[in-house]
Amino acid sequence: MIIITSPPEHFFGEMDLPGDKSITHRALLLGSIARGVTEVRGFLDAEDCRSTIGCLSRLGVNINIRGSRLFVHGRSAQLQAPTGELDAGNSGTTARLLVGILAGSSFESVITGDSSLKKRPMRRIAEPLRAMGAHIIGPDDGDNLPLLVKGKPLKAIHYKSPKASAQVKSAVLLAALQADGETIFEEPYQSRDHTELMLKHFGARLDTDSCRVKIKGRQSLQGKLVPVPGDISTAAFFMVAAAIVPDSDVLLKDVGLNPTRTGVIDVLKEMGADLEIENPRKWGVEPVANIRIKGGSRLRGVNIEGEIIPRLIDELPVLAVAAAVAEGETVIRNAAELRVKETDRISDLTAQLSRLGIAISEKDDGFVIKGGKRPIGADVDSCGDHRIAMALAVAGLVARGETAVSGAEAVNISFPGFMQSLRSLCSKKGH
Ligand code: S3P
Questions:
Q1: How far is CA 420 from the centre of its chain?
Q2: Is 314 one of the annotated active-site residues of the chain?
Q3: What domains can you pick out in the chain, each with its CATH number?
């Protein structure tokens, strides 16, 4: 349970973010099928990435952790038949990318997950992988976990994905690496491109052009050093907190600023937040920078729709909180994907933010939020979703009275230290 008793007078200080979740998963997965050792520096040590480590260990991959560094002993595409089911826990990225890798293996595996992940759609990966020759069997014609994947020789495809999804793209690219011929993957808008960047870093040849990727099969990877930037999706909670608590000045250090992920910065700037990017540089193949945000600017409502959606899909719960504080109306459209995340984030977030007195209404593919009214503290629930738990805690920072978030242990999925970090910024400057 998280309890926010009263709004902080100040939200102030510097913060190191936990490592990026998407990049940590990919370093583990690509490292496992590469030659040699991959060192993952500043990896995210949270439940989702522990699920990936658990699955890979069952596939015979030796992974050692030394402090904030993780060493993956690659098996050169020779994973072992697993000892038992592969449990992806709550992690969609683990399940979907792993199925892409296992589709071309020489053995059978069963991939499963927790009750939330078992409800999430898998046909989006089963369909293109089956077109490549994969055998995937599971409930509702392979739309749900547990999935039985019978490894088969694969052939290249030209796949036009109906969705902008990095998980679908990555599953196809990882299968394509093992296939005969050249695979072309196209998507309507560009989704995050960490897989493409890391594949190139590991020595693979691929042609990338925003919404289209071409990759030849039968390529081998070489393990590399992967420095992991701070996770912008986690930084977003602190950006919004600093933007809405009037007397704030927060420096978020070494945040990953891959342009396929920075929609939240564009939107906060458009809302009028005082946000500056400092010391931009590169960590390996990924851009990073520090972000300074000051409170006190009056925020205004905006429209969020179209091609920016994949660039901020995970940040929409906390942007809804910013919208509640902003003057005027915020309309979020084209975000139906939120319904198939860890929870149905459209209906669950609407229900929980409404309890705080926020004027939010649910639409098929988003929300309408009428801002400008101060939230009122109440008992709310994470619904078992890490991003809803953190968004509610941020709302609690500006609510009148006490906000209690039950089921707050959900934050362990992506940031076990969330509450300590939030408190340390609230307590500075004599609060
Ligand atoms: C992710 C991709 C996104 C995102 C998820 C992580 C990834 O999902 O919402 O949290 O690491 O590839 P989709 O690919 O389903 O859009």
A1: 21
A2: yes
A3: 2-19+230-427 (3.65.10.10), 21-227 (3.65.10.10)
